[in-house]
């Protein structure tokens, strides 16, 4: 019977840790900041806009069989994940968004 009460006490401790947010990780690594990787609000906004424009380019390129738009849309969806600098991200996304119209 004492084993059962110890396991129930252990479960209660685990539930308390989960509710407080400290189960299995440092409290400083939990929260929204860890979900978005510590990105600034500007970088997050640019990533979202680039993904939306890239999705639109990709769908348009797929429907019209336009290879330039298709690959430009794919690049706009993928490349922002690999660029850390916000200024470089804005420049690269602007260039990729304009590329199908100038190539």
TrEMBL record:
**Domain of life where this protein originates:** Bacteria
Query: Membrane-crossing residues?
Result: 35-59, 71-102
Entry keywords, A to Z: Membrane, Transmembrane, Transmembrane helix
Q: What name appears for this protein in its UniProt entry? A: Uncharacterized protein
Native source organism of the sequence: Geomobilimonas luticola
């Amino acid at each position: 019977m004492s084993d059962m009460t110890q396991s129930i006490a252990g479960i209660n401790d685990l539930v308390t840790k989960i509710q407080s947010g400290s189960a299995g990780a440092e409290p400083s690594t939990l929260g929204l900041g860890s979900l978005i990787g510590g990105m600034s609000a500007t970088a997050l906004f640019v990533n979202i806009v680039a993904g939306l424009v890239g999705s639109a380019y990709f769908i348009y390129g797929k429907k019209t069989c336009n290879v330039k738009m298709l690959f430009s849309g794919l690049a706009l969806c993928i490349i922002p994940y690999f660029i850390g600098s916000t200024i470089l991200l804005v420049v690269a996304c602007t260039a990729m968004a304009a590329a199908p119209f100038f190539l």
